Queue: 2 jobs
Job 1
Amino acid sequence: LAEIDVVVVGGGIAGVSIAYELSADRSVTLLEAESTLAYHTTGRSAATFLETYGGPDIRALTAASRDFYEDPPAVFDRPLLRPLPLVFFARRGRGAAADELYEATAGMVAGVERLDAAQVAEVTPFARADALDGGVFEPGARELDVHAIHQGYVKGLRDRGGAVVRDARVTALRADGDGWLVTTADRTVRAAGAVVNAAGAWADLVAALAGVAPVGLRPLLRTVFLIEPPVGLAPRGLPMFADLDDSFYVKPESGGFLCSPADETPVEPHDARADEVEIARAIEAINETTTLAARSVGHRWAGLRSFVPDRRFVLGEDPAAPGFFWCAGQGGYGIQTAPAAARLGAALVRGERTPADLAARGVDAALVAPRRPGIGIPGEAH
Ligand SMILES: Cc1cc2nc3c(=O)[nH]c(=O)nc-3n(C[C@H](O)[C@H](O)[C@H](O)COP(=O)(O)OP(=O)(O)OC[C@H]3O[C@@H](n4cnc5c(N)ncnc54)[C@H](O)[C@@H]3O)c2cc1C
């Protein structure tokens, strides 16, 4: 058996980005179960880059990814980012939550402003000022070209000699000497020095194949649907408008609006479908706080955002399984954080420390370590 340095399991953004980073100085083969890469969560996102979103370490990884997306390696198409200002609004009575978000992000994210209700309505002409206690404005938020980002990583990986194999579901993983034997559904066996588990919602199942304890990943279903704009409103150039309490968000998209109930329904890993009950609830919430007159729903879809309980990523080697590395738990931020998270994940595979620029932003490998406190299934021993 020819030995590969690293086999990466999963061809979503997590898998292709870490595979690209590792291929700079390792032989890498990426195995994807589906016939199409990015078929699951990565192909179903809202495609936003929001530096005020998520906890402090997510914000740090997002901020640390900005330079890469603004000025990517030559193999990527450009631009990868387009302007998309963001208003995180507070419903009436929730002004304190907007104050809190503002205080947590103002020093870190350029241009962040605390707006009152009238100011929110000024930047967001479809907002109902009387329903709001203002909000937080992030003028430098961006829309991501997810397809170009994913393609750029795949092309870069191939250019560096890496292999991408589709229709290659990993069905068995066995420790063998210093490395791993990786079997796919067609019974091909590959010998690898290390395995990176970037299987998205399926990462705990892939770990189980290797006899590795789960990290307690919970796939949460999130629905997206498109609506037409009301007569006389041109969506182009308008901001994204998101409830900081997660009742819904809307984002201008190809002549209409992309909407989400911001639902988080725990499910088993599967090919996700839109939740019609959540769509109906979101339409009501949209019409309470905006003049979008949301009614007829066009195209709709859903994806799985997978989190461990503390909502941090899971990156690094499993202490119980030498050569088995996690790259999971990207939740709702896997694309906006991919450049920095992939560099961190790749450093850990190489046995290096947290890259200095990430450490300077407060990113700490211990906070994303696979067996940190609070990880795993409660009551289950590792
Ligand atoms: C509605 C929605 C909106 C979102 N909006 C944003 C956003 O605006 N910005 C942002 O940054 N993030 C957003 N996210 C989150 C982002 O999409 C995810 O964090 C990211 O796509 C996760 O990537 P992944 O590679 O881990 O997972 P996936 O894309 O699901 O990839 C995992 C892959 O592993 C493969 N796999 C599984 N088991 C095996 C096996 N045994 N063998 C081989 N392959 C296997 C799967 O087929 C799959 O292709 C959103 C998510 C959703 C659902």
Job 2
Amino acid sequence: VHRLKVRLARRCRNIPLAGPATALLERAGVRATYRLHDALLSNPSSRKLFATEPPRLDPAQAEVVNSLSAEGYALVPFRRLVPDPAVWDRLTADAAAFTEQAVRDLAAEKEALAASGAPDRKKEKKLKKSYLRRRYGREVELTLDDPWLRFGVSPAMLDIVNSYLGLWSKLIYIDQWYTVPTSAESERIASQRWHRDYNDQHLVKVFIYLSDVDEGAGPLEYVPGSARGGRYANEWRWDPLSETYPPADEFDRRIPPSAAKTLVGPAGSVIFCNTSGFHRGGFATERPRVMWVYNYVSKASLASLSERNFRVDPDGFPPDLPPAARYALT
Ligand SMILES: O=C(O)CCC(=O)C(=O)O
């Protein structure tokens, strides 16, 4: 979010004003630009592409789209989406090496910390700072031979995401996360706190649990009805580039804790989620959480295509790649 704000602020910096006035103007400019792209410049064409030939959903996909539309999220076992067990086996075999590496790295770091004789508080602080280990991070070169990339643009996924959004979406993020458990007494930081994602209102994040995720493994939590049109949509209403984290005590006053869903599930649980609604996760206190993450946005998104965390060469696309998949990757 910070990188995005800086980039957008730079883009609007031709206006000769200083201080808060500039900031206000910049924000107004970004909001106007987003609305323009959503209403006129970008999304109408992707809506048209979708409407020309809407995909036919199977019953499991239709259920996911209905749940997303009604509540902003859906939780479904992978095997319901893709009954062929070979697909899951291929994906998890690919994910295993990073998980094993993360476990080894962590053990080595803990050993080094123990040997350093640093006080426990300091050790905990260090672990907390890097509680999220990412396989790819910001930039990775991929090809469609990669089973996760291929799956991310398969009809099994894109037909759901695009049907919910009513447009052809762009895949802008793909990664494997390993969440390191930290003390239950530690403070929640970053995405462990309630927040909306402010880069786009037409977005779907997909989290695929690769380990069993119970309350101690930092499950994703979501406030159903907090995305557009929902009963909590007006609490810290979504607007491009708004404040990321509402104060925790005020949050609990305005949205009762009972309104939130804790999305626990065994390995193989798939969560589709419009994260312009309120969500948090990754506060693992007992066990690590391993999961796969995809982010899909509309063409109007402020996290533009230049922010993609992966690169893929269109010249290497197989000729039979469906047009919606090609669109998602370019
Ligand atoms: O780690 C999680 O469960 C939450 C992730 C999150 O907040 C995000 O991707 O926006």
